[in-house]
Amino acid sequence: MSTPSIRRLDTSVVNRIAAGEVIHRPANALKELLENCLDAGASQIQITVKEGGLKFLQIQDNGHGIKKEDLAIVCERFTTSKLKQFDDLSRIVTYGFRGEALASISHVAHLTITTKTADSPCAYRAAYVDGQLSAPAGQNSDPKPCAGNNGTQITVEDLFYNMPTRKKALRSPSDEYNRIVDVVSRYAIHNHGVSFSCKKVGTMTGEVQTNTNTSTLDNIRQIYGTSVSSELLFCEAEAEALNYSMKAYISNANYSMKRTTLLLFINNRLVESDSIKRMVDTVYTSLLPKGGHPFVYLSLMIKPENIDVNVHPTKQKVHFLNEDHVVEAIQEEFLKILENANDSRTFYTQT
Ligand code: ADP
Ligand code: MG
């Protein structure tokens, strides 16, 4: 067999491959866009979806907007207003830091940005393909002035139009829509004080609708229903030695659902953690009837320098210092609250 020569891949190929690793499905794109709205200080976020986000996904915020002169590079890979040096990573408080999301989306979809900063007399609109400004043949691709409110609206159309295999694998728009609603629900619950809405194009009432003045518990009630929200116990703890603090709403021993619902935020990031999932299952196995599972919303804060958020392109998995000890401490808090609630219940029923 003759030896094949090694060639450098075209940047467009490299970028599309990388984009596919960050954006697996509409819900990943939405999560990135949502986090950008929150990073921009938005207090209102409205999401509109068509065909599970595969055809059309639009997100409008009232945040600080993007400067006109940044519009030319905003969708290039590794352009960001959030991180300057590697060291900043250990102090990063924004969701974003590596300037990959908009670039990635523009490599696998048609992306349009309409944005207005508070000090600009008008909004600007720009369209992007493969990280660059784009326009139909013969037209100028420069951002165009237009009417618009302060903030940013991002429209993503025809997701995976250039990745037919990926597109074919995502066969069910309703399943994709459910995943989007799930992401929005979780962010809405965690970010009380910000109003969220998520609906399908052409419908009046959305699947998610929260207001700026509703509490975490109100939002859980709005999204998951009273049957869950009325059975929740509040749990709060802080441990200096382990450098963590947490707040949680956990279902009591009288409540159970078919599958565990775990809304986990670590340093305000929606993440997954096998160790915390396992701990929750352990806590409730002895409490609930066989096949019953809890609802747990847990917001855990850890010293930023004790956590590595840069282990995965989707930032979904995180690891932190003293993970086992912290998880154990949380487990004890949960058990304490659950036992207390159980005791008072027994007490009440006896009197
Ligand atoms: P990152 O969030 O990691 O910086 P992104 O590709 O998600 O990278 O966004 C690139 C930049 O575009 C951000 O740093 C920010 O300056 C700007 N941006 C994106 N979305 C918004 C938004 N909704 N409002 C204001 N600025 C935004
Ligand atoms: Mg971002």
TrEMBL record:
Protein name: MutL-like protein 1, colon cancer, nonpolyposis type 2
Gene Ontology molecular function terms on file: ATP binding; ATP hydrolysis activity; ATP-dependent DNA damage sensor activity; mismatched DNA binding
GO cellular component, one term: MutLalpha complex
Localization annotation: Nucleus
Source organism of the structure: Hesseltinella vesiculosa
Gene Ontology biological process terms, A to Z: mismatch repair
Family from the record: Belongs to the DNA mismatch repair MutL/HexB family.
Coiled coil ranges: none
Residues of the full protein shown: 1 to 351 of 699
Chief localisation class: nucleus
Domain annotation DNA mismatch repair protein S5: ranges: 220-339
Keywords, sorted A to Z: DNA damage, DNA repair, Nucleus
